[in-house]
Amino acid sequence: MGRREKQKEENRFRPDIIICTEGEVTEPEYLRKLINHLISKNKFPKELKHKILIDDCGKKTSPEKLFDKAEKLQSEHKPSIGTFIVFDYEEKSSKEEKLNANQTINKTNVPESIDDISNKKINSIISNPCFDLWGLLHFQKGGFSSQADVYKNIKKYMPDYDE
Question: pLDDT tens, 117-132?
Answer without folding.
Answer: 888 899 999 888 888 8
